Amino acid sequence: MGKSSRDGYAVGADQKVVFVLELIVAIGPLAVYFLALGLLNSRPHPYLIGLRADFLLLSIAFFPLMVVPLAALAARGWLGSWFGGVAAMALVLWWAIQSGLGSGWVIYNIDGRHCLDAVGRACRRLGWETTEVGERIVVTSPKLEIQISTFSILRNVTLNVTISDGHELPGEVDRLGEALARELDAEALLPSPTGAGLVMVGSILLAVPMGYLAHHVEAVVEVVRRIFLA
Q1: Residues 126, 128, 132, 138: is their CA dihedral positive or negative?
Q2: In what order do the strands lie in the sheet with 130-133?
Q3: Engineered SS bond to 183: which of 14, 118, 193, 209, CB 3.0-4.6 Å?
């Protein structure tokens, strides 16, 4: 009877520890992502990052949240052979999106109007003639178009650079990025409420697995003890 109780407790401890690990892996990267966004939006200057690098960080933050529950269901036999197909489709979709990304940047801690002004100043610094058309800046020489998309919830702006005449312009996009970075470094911003809100969201997300871990610390200790005494 005593042995059966110990075995039952060990199985229960294993399940609790596995669930804690699943929570940490699924929610942890997302919590860190929101904390990082909050800190970026609390800086005195906007922050510029390449379009592909931003997409990679976004993937690292959100993919575990989608993959971990599916993997847990597959481990319990609830998805059958569907998990491999779903995972393959997700990878193909990710690769297609990543391959379709063009040249450009994401700027955090800035709104659309200030971004348009900064891009205009950067172009003038390079001696380029520009025309502002809505949320686009058209550069006549070299022939570039800069499309600006604002995501006000996270207080960031995405810049997509396209070549109007279809020809490659080696170094021109890089020159624009360097000039834009210098313009953004000169921007002086007041503290943003968005930054505090994103830090709060990240802290709450991080508190979920940490709270569960603290609540079941005895199960974690039991599993660790059995690992070292095995």
Answers
A1: negative
A2: 47-50, 103-108, 156-163, 144-151, 136-139, 130-133
A3: 118
